[in-house]
Amino acid sequence: MSTQSHEKLLQEFETSNKAAWIEKAVERLKDKDFQALGSVTYEGIRQSPFYTAEDQVHNALTATDFGNAAKWQNREIIHFFPWVDNDQDLRIEDAPQLAQNAHQLALQALAKGADAVHFDLFGVDATLVDFDVLLQGIDLEKNAVGFSFDGRIEPFISQMDHTQWKGTIDYDFLANWTISGHYHNTVFEDLAELIHYTHHRPQVKALTINTNHLHNAGANAVQELAFGIATVVEYIHQLTDLGLDLPLLLRNVEFSMGTGSNYFMEIAKFRALRILWKQVLAGYEVDTARFPVSLHAQTSVWNKTVSDVYVNMLRSTTEAMSAVIGGSDALSVLPYNDFFTEPDEFARRIARNVSTLLKEESYLDKVIDAASGAYYIENLTQSLAKQGWALFQQTEQRGGFMKAFKAGFIQTEIEKVASERIANAEAGIDVLVGTNKYQNPDEALESIPEDADATEAQNGLRLLRLRRVAEGIERQRLKENK
């Protein structure tokens, strides 16, 4: 078709704007309220029925803000302690076999699609762990490795002192404190020592900021952003007071966030974190280009069900897409049954392949910030960044993360949202396929673990972490009142 005929074709259509579309919608709706087509999210954001170029907002992000996010890590989590043994103490005679088991799982993951593994040593006495066994046969130049633990750091540093590797250390004791209600007196000094350990290891990050526990307690996107930023600022204040070099500290930061099933909201959440991180750095008068945010995403536990469990695979897929489109640098897709049993090879393979499919068959690793310019997502991003910063400032006005948590502010804010989510699920307002809609009538009750709470089995929502957060602060109060 010639250019001239093409122009004539376009001339046959009248130009329209958003007002014209609204007018036509109102005409079709007759007596119905047009505004009723919109909705209000758990974040309190009022969403329009549709968005056009007239709703376009400034995109505060550029490609440089995303670093290598398009080449995200497929990071598999390896539990040193099998799920079934989590409530038992590690016996010294069991440690060698557990290390071998974790090592074999890591090799298997790396051979079958993962390009990073993370050893979960939470609750494990590191003096009983042989790190040489865990890392044997892993190409440390090619593959990233990570470790999370909550106890003594000396065994880790002494064993890894002469090892060159890349990856992450998760020693986020503030996150653990919100769950357990306690930490030992030298935790900030220990974390400072871990960060010093990375001084000659520029590809290792040792300051992980977790918001997964808040996400899985029912927090909305604004709360996860705000309290995550409040946590990192708390660490900055405490660690620089100990004399830690600020640039070294900032270089070590990695955020680890949950990703849920509100598809567009989660995309916007990850993008909004990058805006908030730039605002934090600007507050410390630091060149933001020197320290692009590092972001790890982990699929949600909050919305998973112990009945009709295979539905969890589908939820994790959309959650993973939100994470990578939102710009995550690393992604951990949890096996569909990870939260109530030790996953078998089938469950691990399916989870691992979600990330692989998004790369190899969906080509999402070929573009940076794929959501850029989408009117709706850009609006959500700006709203989340604005509201997240406002809630962060409220937290700071209460003395920062630790004081706000001790006062019960953080728990109370999250519990309001969590209670609303649960009520909406029980009323069927929020649909959970396989749980409160389209249940599997042929599912045998035996498929539900014997120790699973009956209510959890019915509604698919896990309030356990929220209870732990509340119980943790109560224990902290009791300690302080003694």
From TrEMBL:
Residues 127-468 form the Methylmalonyl-CoA mutase alpha/beta chain catalytic domain. It comes from the Bacteria. SUPFAM superfamilies: Cobalamin (vitamin B12)-dependent enzymes. Its EC number is 5.4.99.2. The keyword Isomerase applies. GO terms for molecular function: cobalamin binding; methylmalonyl-CoA mutase activity. InterPro entries: Cbl-dep_enz_cat, MeMalonylCoA_mutase_a/b_cat. It is an enzyme of class 5 (isomerase). Coiled coil: none annotated. Keywords: Isomerase. This is Methylmalonyl-CoA mutase small subunit. It comes from Microscilla marina ATCC 23134. The lineage of its organism: Bacteria, Pseudomonadati, Bacteroidota, Cytophagia, Cytophagales.
